[in-house]
Amino acid sequence: MTALLEVNDLVKRFPIPGSGKVVQAVNDVSLTIERGETLSLVGESGSGKTTIGRCVLGLIDPTAGQIRFDGRAMGRGRSIRARDLRGRIQLVFQEPAESLDPRMQMGETLAEPLRYLGMNRADREQRVREVAEHLGLSERMLALYPTELSAGLQQRVGIGRAIVTRPELIVLDEPTSALDPTARAEIVDLLIRLQGELGTAYLLISHDLSTVRFISHRVAVLYLGTIVEEAESERLFARPLHPYSIGLLASVLLPDPELKRSSSISLEGEIPSPIDLPPGCPLAGRCPFADARCHKERPPVVSVGPRHLVGCFHHDRVAALDQTIDQFARFQEESNRLLSVGAD
Ligand SMILES: Nc1ncnc2c1ncn2[C@@H]1O[C@H](COP(=O)(O)OP(=O)(O)OP(=O)(O)O)[C@@H](O)[C@H]1O
Ligand SMILES: [Mg+2]
Fold first, then answer.
1. Closest Cα to residue 174, out of 45, 8, 13, 30?
2. Which of 29, 127, 224, 230 could form a disulfide with 282 if both were Cys (CB 3.0 to 4.6 A apart)?
3. pLDDT tens digit sequence for 22-48
4. pLDDT band at 94 (very low <50, low <70, confident <90, very high)
5. How far is the CA of 178 from the centre of ligand 2 (A)?
6. Per-residue b/e over 282-318, b at no fewer than 16 CB within 10 Å?
């Protein structure tokens, strides 16, 4: 069986006009998503997450590489708007307001993608009723306008608008980051429940690692447009093996800011600009493990366990540290050890 989505050696460069330079936004990214599965892309701002999402949707053309949805190529003029793809891939935005027309009642908003598919009125009304039930929206709510709803309810409708066409894949770009913690938890629950009921696959793009952790089957960690680690979610959060993943998870998951300052594996410096990337490992300039080889050669991505890929020359040294992010106290000790190992 072919994967639902297959991305092979995707490269996306943006020329900077007049400078002769290019932004190397995505560098040789490969990934797959099976039906009904959630793959998340995580990484700091500017790591290329949205660019990968836009390539997958066919909204921008890759510089190189292939994207296949259900076995057929995307890009070069073939986008989610292609006739045979309409409704099969959907997207959900960060700001629910972006996908909601302020002049439309929620019921009309939910029906709109069906109108675009050419569905007749009776079938549209039937489908909207089904979706409203999935979303837990009452008849009364369907008559409201976006400004009459909380951000959480708006996002619920944004998701409803995506599932109404029964897509096989939804690209969710930061779907919870504009929400307060309660609304966020509700949206996470909704997404998990909908996937169970409808079998929709998700490509989730998010800074919010707690959301990612709950929703994802697999997680890919991006750094400067490169996947540095990919693993099943549980495994990645319990036992990340790339120094960047550890730094990223530690910076977010260690609860106490004081603890965080004292113990996280500090990735020195800022994320460099993805313009004229040097050869070698993209993390070399910030990594406590980096040696001369890391600055010269790009580490190959290797398999380090079942469905676990890492691109680091020193992953065995990291593995030997036996840190477990779940256990913060232990993790603190281990990351201190990691810091001292890095310093020698
Ligand atoms: N249209 C464009 N023209 C030029 N550069 C671009 C364009 N789109 C993205 N970039 C650059 O490509 C890199 C990756 O951007 P992208 O938006 O994919 O990152 P991201 O991981 O989604 O970040 P964020 O978390 O801030 O949303 C960045 O350096 C960005 O400035
Ligand atoms: Mg983005």
1. 45
2. 224
3. 999 999 999 999 999 999 999 988 899
4. confident
5. 13
6. bbbbbbbbbeeebeeebbebeebeeebbbbbbbbeeb
Summarised one tens digit per residue, pLDDT across range 239-282 is 889 989 888 887 765 555 554 444 445 566 667 778 878 889 98
Residue with the smallest CA separation from ligand 1 atom 29 is 46
Closest CA to ligand 1's atom 27: 45
Structure tokens at 218: 């697999």
Mean pLDDT of the chain, nearest integer: 86
pLDDT in tens, 113-146: 999 899 999 999 999 999 999 999 999 999 999 9
Q: Which domains does the chain have, with CATH numbers?
A: 5-216 (3.40.50.300), 241-304+314-343 (no CATH)
- Which strands make up the sheet holding 218-223, listed edge to edge? 89-92, 169-173, 201-205, 38-42, 218-223, 226-232, 308-310, 302-305
- The H-or-E segment that residue 51 falls in is helix 49-56
**Residue 133 CB-density burial (10 A; 0-12 exposed, 13-18 middle, 19+ buried):** exposed
